[in-house]
Amino acid sequence: MQAELAELRKLAKVAPEGTSATTPAVPTVASGQQSSLSVPPAFAPTPSSSCAAATNNLQGLCITDKSIDDVHLTAAHVNELFRVYFTRCHPYLPFTMCRSIESIYDRCPMLFWVICAVASPDTARPRFEAPIRGLMLDVLDPSKESGVEMVQAILILCMWPFPFNSQKADSSFIYSGLATQISLSLGLHRPALDAGFGNEPTATERQGDEEIRRTTWLACFVVAQIQASRRGVPATVSADYSLLSSLDDPAVPQELSHLCYISHLTVDATQALGARGSNATGLVEPSSRISMINVFGKQFEDLRRQRFPQPTDIVEIFYLNSRLQLWSFALHNDVPVTANSVQIIYQAREDAIRLIQVACEKNLSLVPFYTRRSVCYAGLLLYRIKLGSYGCQDDMIEHHIDTARQALSTSEGPGGPSVGQFLATVTLPDNMDAFTRASGDKDSPHRSRMGAFLVFDFHRVYTDLRQANVFPSTEFLDFDNLPWMEFQ
């Protein structure tokens, strides 16, 4: 039997490039259960060059069926899910990783099942949640060592979390911290050194292993910044010399390098503006804030011109979202309306419109959660501008808020965070007066939330209105299932 398996592995590694793909089905369930789930057309294989490239990039296919709890996948189904992952998911966080499916399964079942989960249709993903959460318990067991593959699995989960109804139910921030701590314990922050971290690869493994370690640590940095920005708290990972020098390493995927450069500048800007003021909130006083916004704005422009003058959509959306966080510091209601502040507001308007345009050209049901949240953030920022005294109440703002509302509402799967409904409710005309009054409140408790303060301000009024029961009755909105704590 062992000899036969070895032979099958060899055959899988040299599978012909023209091998036809098998249409993926949703996971079958164990006996006694039936599934009515179906695969949406978006996940059916198409004879595209990207799918062919993903097939060629796999260094070894799955040769045996796989099961965990009540989820059963055929080998052909697994192969297709991995093709979907490397084609549609991996480009958003392109760290270097093992490309042999059977090797991944042997080294880290958690990584294997996470990839299968995020590549599955929305209707099928919930079946993976309980088994994967069970595998996560291995991280807390000191007798079970966690390797770099476990870090990669956790990072993927942070980008593609399981459906949640409130931010309190989303584990992404905690998972990001776990990924960082495991990475540090493995010495990934010093990828080229064995400084007593137990990193002793053989000579033939050293080069590939170093590349995996280096890019995984860079991915940790990006994910930590995303999670910190979402919650309006200081970043947990800083960019030191080792990290920054890695960004020009030819072995680092260019898109990952670009994301790291953006994250580095985002962390610097939000820390300088929102955490180093001489007051309890950490917010720098208005006149200095405007000057610093202009300085960092110039640095963002220089970064784009020097590093990615023609960015991919993934990089551009990430870049624009970071710039919006910077501009949002001028939207605090302690900033007087001056020529300088209005100029910043107009730039924020242009960036928010551009982000919505680029992102909404995509199928938002296939992007990471942070991309959908970026669209919601851009819509909220445009609405805050509309409510302010900036002379920006034009049709373009309303048109793009509506575009964001529609794109988000039509892309959200069952049981997931309904940011589309949140944006739609916040921007209801009947609620405009309440949000206008709130935008002038100079005692907002969320001034310490850095670039996320807008979301928390909107949510506070939103919750107050709900408690006062003043929302109009409408068949479109299901208030019982709205994410009341989504951004809290």
TrEMBL record:
The name under which this protein is listed is Xylanolytic transcriptional activator regulatory domain-containing protein
Q: Does the keyword rRNA processing apply?
A: no
- Which Gene Ontology cellular component terms are annotated? nucleus
Q: Which residues form the signal peptide?
A: none
Q: Which InterPro entries match?
A: prtT, XnlR_reg_dom
Which GO molecular function annotations are given, in alphabetical order? DNA-binding transcription factor activity, RNA polymerase II-specific; transcription cis-regulatory region binding; zinc ion binding
**Xylanolytic transcriptional activator regulatory domain location, by residue?**
84-241
| Keyword terms of this UniProt record | DNA-binding, Nucleus, Transcription, Transcription regulation
